[in-house]
Specification:
228 residues, alpha+beta, PH-domain like, eight-stranded antiparallel beta sheet, 14 strands, elongated
């Protein structure tokens, strides 16, 4: 990945922390955007009545960049993913039904009628004997000085994938924060809209096992694989 991708990945990780954190019952992301917009309005009104000074321009520029940056991070789903062709070598390991892979997952996970978009959290992936895929993500909230993820959100969150609803599977590299890992991007159709989930792996061998599990009827040995 390029240096610009790595810088984006670092910023996206910070933006994700802001998105998930709360100060008491107040979402930190909303508080930050609200403060930035309020400062912008104050500076514009001040400029209208008194005139612009360099400091006002700097403040307004920073506020606008913060808001645009947070919105851009959300649009990009807080990760940098670059598609890469990945040939599956002969003898790629198959994943048996109910056998679990320990990965890191990003996507819309749910529990008890609550849904959260989680990014690069420890995730178990496995397929059932009926062929469906299950992702189980473990959330371990961290709080400091009253700021952090609510403890009520700790525990296991789930995402269920029907193979018939999967639109595409792409192999590549994912960056989040300072970490880069081989990964898979899965686009699928939920009951209401199109969704995307990312699964990042420890190494290339684990990636190949995951790809083989996701496309058991299409991924022949030795075939080059990039997208469905």
């Amino acid at each position: 990945m390029s240096w610009s991708d790595r810088l984006l990945a670092a910023f996206f990780a910070a933006a994700y922390v802001v998105r998930r954190a709360k100060l008491g019952d107040i979402a930190l992301r909303g508080l930050l955007i609200g403060t930035a917009l309020a400062l912008t309005i104050v500076m514009v009104v001040k400029a209208w009545w008194v005139g612009l000074v360099p400091w006002d321009v700097i403040v307004v520029t920073c506020c606008v960049l913060v808001v645009l940056g947070l919105l851009a991070a959300e649009t990009r789903r807080y990760v940098v993913f670059r598609k890469r062709s990945h040939p599956l070598p002969p003898g790629t390991q198959s994943l048996h039904a109910e056998e679990k892979l320990r990965l890191h997952g990003s996507g819309p996970f749910s529990v008890n009628e609550m849904q959260r978009y989680l990014v690069e959290v420890p995730t178990f992936f496995w397929s059932t004997r009926l062929g469906d895929y299950i992702l189980a993500a473990q959330v371990q909230p961290v709080r400091a000085l009253g700021i952090g993820v609510p403890r009520a959100e700790s525990g296991w969150w789930y995402l269920f994938l029907d193979p018939g609803r999967i639109a595409s599977v792409e192999a590549g590299e994912l960056a989040f924060g300072l970490r880069r890992r081989p990964a898979v991007r899965i686009k699928y159709r939920s009951a209401k809209t199109s969704e995307t989930v990312f699964l990042s792996c420890t190494d290339a061998q684990q990636l190949e096992t995951l790809l083989r599990a996701l496309r058991p009827n299409e991924l022949g040995q030795g075939k080059s694989y990039s997208a469905a």
